Amino acid sequence: MPESLRPLSLSELLDRAIQLYRKHFGLFVGIAAIPFVAVTALQVLEATLGLTKPGTTPAALLAEWPRILVSLAVLECVVFLAVAYSMGATVWAVGHLQLGEATGIGRSFRGLKGRVARVALTMLAEIVVAMLPMLAVFVLAVLLPAVAIAGRVVGVIWGLLVVAVAIAAIVAAVWIWLRLAVAVPAVVLEDLGVFAALRRSAALAKGYVGRVFLVYLLTFALELGMEGLFAVPALIIGGLRHPATGVWQVWGLAMGFLANVLVMPILAICLSLLFYDFKVRKEAFDIEVLLRRDAANAQA
């Protein structure tokens, strides 16, 4: 049984994630790079065609809004699918490495066969479900003008109610998001459907929401620092020198691509490790793996 397949403290989990990332750097960067080639190609095409030329007047933008809207919608869909594809393949790779099994870029992508759509739909479902508490805020805010007619005091009270509900809704949305954090690993590693994966994640993460929050917080800080090393300097240099030329737009996109392929795997690795950590803590998954391997060795 792999030594890392045991209950891990938060520091051990993050240390394991960094070890995996460093030891299999080419694997994870390769997995992230392949889907994002399509994203970067579309972004370069956008810059080349002058979809958002620097210095474009508001009137010109208004005249071009249908084309801009369609192009942005297509780009966002491609980005979302690229993230889903990359994250799913990364989870697959981590799952096998964590069990002491060899894998590669091609094998990780092939392992997603029949799962890519479910991974994308699961990621979308996480967003939709987490945002449900905000519907209460929207309803109260829509009714605010009508309530204000009843009187100033009633309007003020209603406004305070909207603020209180908004705060509660944000807290609830974050809590739901954290409970659903390992839904994608459930899809990839246990071949579950979208709703089954959401329920599985909610059950595994129950009682460990604070742990998931800290993982998100620390990985976000790490990702922000890495992105700052590449994307921000490119934007600053491009803006100070020749902001109106497509050369610096393409340069900024190239740096953004580099930041994406270096940053994207980190969260997927951490969530995959969390998934296994929850299974070990709640279901004695380490013992299950050990018994399976003993049985396989006995048969051999």
Would you mind describing this structure in some detail?
The radius of gyration is 23 Å and the shape is globular. With 300 residues, the chain is an all-alpha fold. The two termini are 17 Å apart. It contains 13 helices and no strands. The longest helix is centred in the last third of the chain and has 38 residues. The chain is 83% helix and 0% strand. The chain has a domain of 206 residues. Helix 2 runs antiparallel to helix 12 and helix 6 runs antiparallel to helix 8.
What key phrases describe this protein's structure?
single chain, mainly alpha, 300 residues
Provide the structure class: mainly alpha
Largest sheet: none
Question: What global shape is seen?
Answer: globular
- Measured by DSSP, the beta-strand proportion falls in under 5%
> What kind of assembly state do the chains in view correspond to?
single chain
Topology:
Layout: H1 10-23, H2 25-49, H3 58-63, H4 65-98, H5 105-110, H6 116-131, H7 134-148, H8 152-179, H9 183-190, H10 194-205, H11 209-240, H12 246-283, H13 285-299
Helix pairs in contact: 1-12, 2-4, 2-12, 4-6, 4-9, 4-12, 6-8, 6-9, 6-10, 7-8, 9-10, 11-12
Task: Provide a concise account of the structure shown.
The chain has 300 residues and is mainly alpha-helical.
